[in-house]
Amino acid sequence: DTEVTQTPKHLVMGMTNKKSLKCEQHMGHRAMYWYKQKAKKPPELMFVYSYEKLSINESVPSRFSPECPNSSLLNLHLHALQPEDSALYLCASSPAGPGDNEQFFGPGTRLTVL
Amino acid sequence: KNQVEQSPQSLIILEGKNCTLQCNYTVSPFSNLRWYKQDTGRGPVSLTIMTFSENTKSNGRYTATLDADTKQSSLHITASQLSDSASYICVIRSGGSYIPTFGRGTSLIVHP
Nearest C-alpha of chain A: how many angstroms from B79? Predict the structure, then answer.
């Protein structure tokens, strides 16, 4: 299985809602990433987990809360989001550690905050 | 500051024509360079990877070149197809880090 899956594909939520994005991979990768991508812009790194531990938080607001329950799963919990948080949220995974490791991206979750 | 600059920002070509996309970078130390293809609303998919010692690498109708001295790379698409319409992103990985630096991408539209 060489795929990263993300659910849901689309999500519409109000500013007072609490929702979660889910990412899963079964390639044995030990590094997992959350990216945010606005239209016509490159992906922006949000969080990196390495061996299920949060290793990088790119100064992301606390209304985004990541969680890595095990080596195959990565969640992004959303609470009290703003309309400007509407974007494509991409999950990726790679073999952990530095080097020429390819990041495998999921199809993304299209989030709209009303 | 590590940067990756891509040109052109957007490109429109007719089906069957060739095109070349450019990527200039200042990332140092250099580890590798990947070209990704991203369809609208989808995640990026890797096309090629270039390391320091490689000058040219092909993947079907896609050919990537790398000049590590001038810190330039290109992606040449031969005999374009409608399905080539996408954003093409140049991504550089710095030595010792697994956090890549993304270019802004080139948006390619192939018209019939």
Answer: 25
